[in-house]
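Quick one: C-alpha cells for this chain, please?
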Amino acid sequence: MEVSVETTQGLERKMTVQVPAQRVEDEVENRLKRLRGQVRLDGFRPGKVPLKVVQKRYGPQVRNEVVSEVLERSYGEALEQEGLKPAGQPHIEPVSMAEGSDLQYEATFEVIPSIEVGNVEAIEAERPSVEVTATDVDNVIDRLRRQHADYVPVDTPAKEGDRATFDFEGAIDGEGFEGNSAEDVVTELGSGQMPVDFENQLIGVSINDTPVVEFTFPDEFPDEAIAGKTAVFNVTVKNVETAQLPELDDAFAERLGLEGGVEELRNRVQQSLESERDQAVHSQCKRQVMDELVRLNPIDLPQVLIDGEVEQLREQTKQRMRQYGQDPEQMEWPDEHFQEEARRRVSLGLLVNEVVRSEELELDQQRLQQALQQVAANSQDPQQVLQSYQQDRQKMQGLEVQVMEDQVVDWILERAQITDKPMGFDELMGRAETANQED
C-alpha cells in the first residue's frame, strides 16, 4: 500500500492512498467462493452453483461491499503508518475504483496538533480562604424560617418580604403583546421571583390599590418583538400578606425532620455550608487554573472540533430556554456568538488530554465513586440515578472526564503559584454565582 501526505493549510492534510488491486480482487473471490456454498438457485443443487454464475449474479454487489470495507481499513492503516491523529471524519474523494485497477482515493481531514504543555509553574491563582461563621449559619436558618413562615393578611402598605397577590395587564405603545397579562400572581417582594424593577414598584401598595407599573425589557430578552421596549402594566392588588416566622426551637427542628433539636439543625447547616464552600473553592481554583493553562499554552485548533463545540453550546442554550418555557426555534444565534467559549473548551480538552498522557495519570476509581455518590445524593431518587449511570456508558464517561479534569487541576495546583485570599462566605458564593452565569 502506497501512502503520501500533503499539508494543504494549517492543520489540514490531504492523504493519498493506493491499495493494490490484488488485495481487493482476492477478497472478492474469497467471498464469492463462500457465497457459492450458501446460495440456492433453481436448476442447481445446493453448493454446486458454478462460480461464474455466482459471480455474474452477485459480483457487483460483493465488490462494492469489499471496496467499502477495504477503503475503511486501509484508511486506518494509512493513519497508523504515517503517525497521524485525525481531529474528525475525513472527506473521501475516489480517484480510481475500477475493477482490475489499484484502489486509489484521497482523504482530506484536520489533524490533532502536536502539543507540549509547559509554563505550569508560571500559573498564578487565588484560592479563597473562607471560614463558615455562626452568622452564616444564622442567615441560613433565618431563610429556613422564612420558607416555613405563615402569611397573614394586613391592611398596611406592602414592604420588602411581604407577599402580594395581584392581576396585571400590560401594553407597549397601547398594544398588547404575548404574555402581557396574568391573574392571581403571587410574589414575595424583594425575592427576585419577578424582575427587580417590577417588584420594587409594588413596595408600598395596599390591598385594592391599582398602581401603574412601567418596565423596560432588557435588550437581550429572548422575544425580539419586545426586547428593549418599555411596557406599561395596569396592576390590581388583591391581597397583601406579611410573614409570621416560626420560633427557632426544637419544635421547628422537628418540623424539618431533625430529632436532635436546634443543636442538630445548626450542625447540619454548618456541614452543608462547609460542603458548599469546598465545592465553590474548588470550582474557582479550577476556573483560574484552566484559564491560565489556555493562556500560557496557545495551540492551533482544528476547525472541525470548534464547529462541533459550537453546535453543542447552541443545543445547551436551546435546552436552557426550554426549561424556562421559551421557544428556542424563534431565536437565531450565529456561530460567532459561541466561538470564544468553543475555542476555550477545545483548547482545554486538548491540553488536559496531553497532561494525562504525558504524566501517565490514571483515573482515580475511588474518586469516581465519590463523584457518583455525590450526583446521586443530590437527586430525589439516588438509587435510580446510580442505576442509570451503571447502565449508560455515555453518562459514566462524562463523569469520568469530569473526575479526570479534577485530577489534572490538582496536579497543576501542586506546581502552580497559589495565594490564599481570605474572604467571607457570601462573597465566595457571590463569585461562584457570577462564574456560573458566565459559563
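The mean pLDDT is 91.
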